[in-house]
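User: I've been trying to design a sequence by hand for this structure and keep getting stuck. Would you show me what you'd pick, starting by listing the structure so we're on the same page?

Assistant: Good idea, let's start from the same input. This is the structure you sent:
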């Protein structure tokens, strides 16, 4: 139900939801729609050969990790989350800034282990940690990581380019997050870079909030509907179809390509990435043909 005008100022974020909140913020930022992408901000500088890519992300204690979680795994996840968004736009990450907000009672050893995880994750993709900020807090720990890099103009991809009839693919397996994957995943940067070099990718994003939340976002950005074969979803060991749809934090790629490219893509993928599965799960369809699926929604912030 839409809140009344007199009540709007007191509307809680739990009633609004993340997507509506972000849309309302962007409406108030001058020129934001032409600068801010779906998973990253992609910026154009006059005369520059490549596009500048910016992303910031955070992990929060008791939301993204537990107090008992090994600090090096927390650092790994904190760095890899924004890098997964770089994979979503096929960008190359280069530099990172770390903001550490932590209680003064936390041990120096914990922070050292945290940075060991951050450095290991950054080194895997040649990212240099070049600075940051620290602050004390009484509440839970927060680590924010901001990453900058680039993408070639011809290889930049967003959620909004999907075309009617496109095949939908996902990499890897879905539904394994709560069994530990969310602390040890490796973003699909190498795979996304290969994709945009070898195939015309119309739309792409990473699956951070779950297929049930992210697939509707891609379809909506492309002004299309979708249909999927739930029985075709590639399940992680021990995962159910519901887990694959709603658990979130898979950090796999979801992308759309022309059906004409499907045979060539699948054959070349098996040769290039024999240990990473690539699964067709459905297609993008005309919005007039779309019947909303009773999908579980995945992770929804503020609810």
């Amino acid at each position: 139900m839409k809140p009344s005008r007199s009540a709007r100022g007191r509307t809680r974020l739990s009633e609004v939801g993340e997507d509506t909140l972000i849309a309302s913020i962007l409406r108030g930022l001058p020129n934001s729609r032409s600068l801010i992408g779906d998973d990253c901000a992609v910026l154009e500088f006059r005369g520059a050969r490549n596009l500048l890519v910016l992303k910031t992300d955070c992990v929060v204690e008791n939301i993204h990790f537990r107090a008992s979680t090994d600090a090096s795994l927390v650092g790994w996840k904190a760095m890899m989350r924004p890098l997964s968004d770089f994979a979503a736009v096929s960008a190359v990450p280069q530099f990172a800034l770390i903001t550490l907000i932590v209680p003064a009672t936390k041990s120096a050893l914990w922070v050292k282990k945290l940075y060991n995880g951050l450095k290991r994750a950054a080194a895997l993709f040649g990212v240099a940690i070049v600075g940051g900020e620290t602050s004390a807090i009484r509440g839970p720990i927060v680590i924010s990581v901001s990453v900058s890099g680039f993408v070639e103009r011809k290889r930049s991809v967003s959620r909004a380019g999907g075309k009617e009839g496109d095949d939908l693919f996902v990499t890897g397996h879905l539904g394994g997050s709560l069994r530990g994957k969310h602390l040890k995943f490796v973003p699909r940067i190498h795979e996304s870079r290969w994709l945009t070099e070898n195939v015309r990718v119309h739309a792409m994003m990473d699956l951070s909030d779950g297929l049930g939340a992210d697939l509707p976002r891609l379809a909506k950005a492309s002004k299309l509907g979708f249909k999927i074969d739930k029985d075709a979803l590639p399940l992680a060991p021990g995962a159910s179809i519901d887990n694959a749809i709603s658990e979130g934090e898979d950090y796999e790629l979801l992308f759309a390509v022309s059906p004409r490219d499907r045979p060539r893509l699948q054959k070349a993928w098996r040769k290039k990435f024999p240990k990473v599965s690539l699964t067709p799960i459905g297609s993008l369809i005309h919005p007039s043909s779309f019947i909303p699926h009773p999908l579980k929604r995945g992770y929804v912030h503020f609810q």
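That's my pick for every position. To get oriented when you compare it with your attempt: Residues 28-154 form a domain with the 60s Ribosomal Protein L30; Chain: A; fold (CATH 3.30.1330.10). The chain has a mean pLDDT of 89.
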